[in-house]
Design goal:
Order of helices and strands: HHHH
Strand content: under 5%
Shape: flat
Number of strands: 0
Number of helices: 4
Distance between the termini: 39 Å
Mean pLDDT: 84
Radius of gyration: 25 Å
Number of domains: 2
Largest sheet: none
Helix content: over 70%
């Protein structure tokens, strides 16, 4: 940092400082991973979402009967897939709760029951002070 008369050297030095601050912040601060609220949503579901979006865009650009029929069929397939994935996920949760009950794992049993009863509860992030 002795001979930083050029604009390029100054910009490079600031980039280095910025990168050092970012890396030290990542090391010092622990990032909390948010819990995924839809564990049944996988790559297959995302593919159907994209396919449904494309069909809707085609229908909006050219609202002919062929595009309407295509959109309705894609919507039906997507909703059927989502319904089946949700049902599989729910049965897996119920089976997990049942196994926790059988092996006398009380904490996980009541945690699973509470999750099923309460459902998704959005968190409110309130700034303190």
């Amino acid at each position: 940092m002795e001979k930083l008369s050029d604009g390029d050297n100054i910009n490079r030095a600031w980039e280095n400082i910025k990168e050092n601050i970012k890396t030290s912040a990542k090391e010092c601060l622990v990032l909390h991973e948010l819990k995924q609220h839809k564990p049944w949503l996988d790559e297959e579901c995302l593919g159907f979402l994209d396919q449904r979006k494309q069909a809707k865009m085609q229908w909006l650009q050219d609202p002919c009967q062929i595009n309407v029929d295509n959109l309705n069929s894609v919507r039906g397939e997507a909703s059927r897939l989502f319904r089946n994935k949700k049902k599989e996920n729910l049965t897996a949760k119920i089976d997990e709760i049942e196994t926790n009950s059988k092996i006398k794992n009380v904490r996980d049993l009541y945690k699973g029951i509470g999750d099923l009863k309460k459902g998704y509860q959005p968190r409110t992030n309130i700034v303190k002070n």
